[in-house]
Amino acid sequence: xxQEPCPQVSLYADGQAFENRLSLLSxxxxxVELIKVVGHSSKTDSMTGxxxxxxxxxxxxxxxxxxxxxxxxxxxxxxxxxxxxxxxMDATASREPAWDRACHIQxxxxxxxxxxxxxxxxxxxxxxxxxxxxxxxxxxxDELLERMTRVSCQGGYTQIEKVLxxxxxxxxxxxxxxxxxxxxxxxxxxxxxxxLAGELGMLGVPAFLFHEGTEPVAQRAFKQIAxxxxxxxxxxxATSAGQLRDLLRAVAVYAAGGRSALQDFSKDxxxxxxxxxxxxxxx
Length: 283
Fold this sequence. Notes:
- Strands 3-2-1-4-5-6 form a six-stranded mixed beta sheet, with helices on both faces.
- Helix content is 52%, strand content 13%.
- It has two domains: 15-71, no CATH class; 83-280, Rossmann fold, CATH 3.40.50.410.
- Mean pLDDT is 78; it is low at 1-59 and 70-74.
- The protein has twelve helices and six strands.
- It starts with 14 loop residues before the first helix and ends with a helix.
């Protein structure tokens, strides 16, 4: 079954207005209230084709205050503790080749982090009619591979919101160092996704979004989710298992050893990995 193309999502015609509005979204009541004042009228204007730039004096201070709060949120892990990484994938029909590639290379994440104290991974995926699954926390490549090889991809819409909510829930129970999502499409309310991404940012859980292809609606949404969670976005070649392997290894190193370990890892790596590291280092 071939997955239907992503439906068009209503976005601001003005790119900067889109950037500004999504930057406001977070789990904080005061920021949400500000959106009600300055955001709704701009969204209405955009739908009628009017000039839709947000009032600069109304939004700039709130955006900067939110980003400063995110920047000041520490990313911590107890000494000697294993890193925890949520590995989420779109398992709808169009994703079957990518799923097979991920099965072959997932072991690299465990291998690369052994010297850093190890890594526990929770596999999450969605497919079909509203189906979302999350595995127990797994500590070996064999366990993860056994879980992944049971899964068959099925047609359906994206459920990225469930992925973000799972990451929030898990880190409230026990700290999660990073979320990885691999997908090619976005068919959901982008405002809701960005609000959840803001919550992840406040909880110190960066989201790394690896975009197979260049679908523009997904690209814009994925970049905003990465920015609000203090993570990173990278698109990769669907035919290159090597690119996806390098990206997954890089995030595994980050989850197990932190930013300094990632910087050391990226020194002699591909341009794609260095780009990922540079994004994570930005405020």
